[in-house]
Automatic annotation (TrEMBL):
Signal peptide: none annotated. Component of the Mediator complex, a coactivator involved in the regulated transcription of nearly all RNA polymerase II-dependent genes. Mediator functions as a bridge to convey information from gene-specific regulatory proteins to the basal RNA polymerase II transcription machinery. Mediator is recruited to promoters by direct interactions with regulatory proteins and serves as a scaffold for the assembly of a functional pre-initiation complex with RNA polymerase II and the general transcription factors. One of its GO terms (biological process) is regulation of transcription by RNA polymerase II. InterPro entries: Mediator_Med11. Gene3D superfamilies: 1.10.287.3490. GO terms for cellular component: mediator complex. It comes from the Eukaryota. It is found in: Nucleus. This is Mediator of RNA polymerase II transcription subunit 11. Component of the Mediator complex. The gene is LOC101503401. Keywords: Activator, Nucleus, Transcription, Transcription regulation.
């Protein structure tokens, strides 16, 4: 991924962040409206809710696109994270098998001691 596409990706993510802030403002506006002593104005609540839902949809679409584009390149090809995790998992599996074998040996030893 070149620096130009990284920049535009960051810009798109900043736009998503702005939409999230707007969503929170809309939610706060609806809460304020619902808390009015004279009751909420239906048209205002409805317009806020419609805008809220549209922004949520836009945010989801934008994030899906960013995730998809992020998966199209591999910036950490030389990263050993995957192999380190796989090694850690194998170590845990071997450790578990060894504990099971130790328990079996103890059971066998107890059996022979009972004879």
């Amino acid at each position: 991924m070149d620096s130009q596409s990284q920049t535009t990706s960051l810009q798109r993510l900043q736009n998503v962040e702005k939409r999230i802030v707007k969503v929170l403002e809309l939610a706060g506006g609806v809460m304020d409206e619902l808390a009015r002593p004279v009751g909420p104005r239906k048209d205002l609540v409805q317009s806020h809710c419609l805008e809220f839902m549209q922004l949520i949809k836009d945010i989801q679409v934008a994030l899906r696109e960013e995730i998809k584009s992020a998966c199209e390149y591999r910036p950490f090809e030389k990263c050993d994270y995957g192999s380190r995790i796989a090694n850690e998992i194998c170590y845990k599996k071997v450790d578990y098998v060894m504990s099971q074998l130790d328990a079996m040996k103890q059971t066998i030893d107890e059996y022979h001691a009972a004879d």
